[in-house]
Hints:
- The chain has helices at 4-25, 32-51, 59-79, 85-116, 130-137, 146-174, 186-205, 211-229, 237-259, 262-285, 290-295, 318-326, 337-342, 345-357, 376-384, 394-397, 419-422, 473-488, and strands spanning 330-335, 361-366, 391-393, 406-410, 441-446, 466-470.
- The chain is an alpha/beta fold.
- Helix 15 (376-384) links the parallel strand 2 (361-366) and strand 3 (391-393).
- Helix 6 packs antiparallel against helix 7, helix 7 (186-205) packs antiparallel against helix 8 (211-229) and helix 14 packs parallel to helix 18.
- It is globular and about 80 Å long.
Amino acid sequence: MSWLPTLVQACYFLAALLFILGLKRMSSPRTARGGIVWAGVGMLVAVLATFALPDMQNRGLILAAVLIGVAAAWWSGRRVAMTAMPQMVALYNGMGGGAAAGIGAAELVAHVQRATVAVPDTYPLRPENWVTEALHQVPAVAPLSPVALGLGVLGALIGAVSFSGSLVAFAKLQGWMDRRFVFPGQRVVNLLVLLLAVVHGVMLAAGHLELPVILAFFVLSLLFGLLMTLPIGGADMPVVISLYNAFTGLAVAFEGYVLGNEAMIIAGMVVGAAGTLLTQLMAKAMNRSLGNVLFGSFGAAAGGAAQEIAGAQKPIEAADAAVMMAYAERVAIVPGYGMAVAQAQHKVWEFAKLLIERGVKVKFAIHPVAGRMPGHMNVLLAEAGVPYDLIEDMDDINPEFPNTDVVLVIGANDVVNPMAKTDPTSPIYGMPILDVAAAKHVIVVKRGKGTGFAGIENALFYADNTRMLYGDGQAAAGQLVSELKALDS
């Protein structure tokens, strides 16, 4: 069937087209759901086409692995809470990087075995010879070109770093590990481990395909991923997730070149490019360079004594807060991860609808890194049914805060902290924030007087125009709804 390879290539082209169109549709909340479906169909086409390759081996094992993976993803995807979505993304992204590293390891080990094991045409199938006989049954592995060998090693390095780093990010987001872990000389140790991993990678790319070198290379690569992620603070996790997403895409593209699989190359390049652009946007939103993302100690203070915060937090009752917003002309609602934890998005939208019915102009203000991953708050609000035209990005909403009567902050902390503009010693100094402090009145829904996820005190809570509505996010939103309804009864 000489036409079969051509059909496979055509399917790969179709899959690539669906990937790109799907990614384009994901850029807008209105079409994101359809974009995910398009990209999923593209992946299905690519997988089915791969099974049709003439030289494909072990189809049964591959099919079993695909079915197990699909079943696990379907089960976990339906069960995971929206608050746990960031750690699920980190985990799945790590699996992609690990798969790419595994491909690189398999290719390197296969060439070592082919070079060191000589098997006669007829070999007794005695138990002690099963491994050698199994190797003899594997089709001969064509020597890798220098370019393919180099890209395979580079993809394995990047994939291993993404795998171990994503696991640490998952553990931090899940609460299984401290948010930051630092020790003296950490940057020097990190760079030394990376240098050793690169040296072993260069040895492999130069043709020194020996098992001790391969083992040391992967151990060092995995160790660097761990060390690189350990010092990262919780407030910087959106940047980390985006960065490892880009790493995984690049690793898949490189290993696709090694395997000669066009679908992997295109999909990896698309994911790598999208992840890189998103990382740059997230780094800009956090006021960090990519070099600092890679080698900096995230969340570390600039040094010196922190500015003292004058004043005290001033509480407010739900009834008074409801009245203040009921008779306002403009109200902005700033959601954060605390709203997600409390699962309060539905109650918040119910409260917003009641305000809109009273003629109040309501908008939702979203910071680029609000929550634990890019777009987290947008997904939560979409789940609650908030119309897209009521959701404003930071750059669009900031000029409107001085003319806003009341800002309701629910579950957000660091992204509204004015110390990012006033305190050079603050870990978030220079980070663009939502300028809610410029509004006429600010109401902050918060469980208690503690600091936020980054562990930084927030000067907004002590401002003269701020009042604190203490309590669980969903309970507080429910009280606001009840009080607002009582005004109309």
